[in-house]
Amino acid sequence: MKHIPTLYQWAGGLEVIKELITKFYDKVVTDDVLKDLFTHMSEEHQINVARFISEVLGGPKLYTENGGSHFGMIKKHFQKNISEEQRRRWMNLLLEIANELKLPDDPEFRSAFVAYLEWGTRLAVINSNSDTIDMAPDEPMPKWGWGETGGPYNPNGN
Question: Helices (DSSP H) in 80-141: which residue ranges?
Fold first, then answer.
């Protein structure tokens, strides 16, 4: 049976995702569209975001094992009033950094990765503009996989 890596593994693991998030936070604090949302974020928050994304993409459960939850991440966005312009800028900036870091650019990975980012940022906008959180505190963490692609393209057939 063919082994299909998780998106987390295919991306390069925790260190790559940490670098992606670190570089993102380095840039957002000077970005005219995003700086007001991010200037107060701590290094601990950056680590939590990297652990959250890693876990969602199939990596170790470092986020939940350190007290994090899906509900907790939703609460971070609650009543922040994120605009569609900010969401699009967030997406564009993170994808620019993914290119700079040379995250895999095969169509299968990028379609799954972009789909997750689209889903997550759209959910953040909804929750940031809501008066209530319609989610149970023990809601399970989301899990994101390859979707319909059946795994990454591998020219060697492995």
Answer: 84-100, 107-128
Of 1.20.1560.10, 3.40.50.2300, 1.10.490.10, 3.30.750.24, the CATH number of 7-144 is: 1.10.490.10
- Identify the CA nearest to 52 among candidates 122, 144, 138, 115: 144
Instruction: Report the distance separating Cα 84 and Cα 124, nearest Å.
Output: 10
Give the pTM: 0.87
Inform me whether the pLDDT recorded for 137 exceeds 90: no
* Burial track 12-31 (b if 16+ CB lie within 10 A, e otherwise): eebebbbbbbbbbbebbeeb
Reported as a pLDDT band with limits 50, 70 and 90, residue 144 is very high
Give the sign of the dihedral formed by CA 128, CA 61, CA 7, CA 147. negative
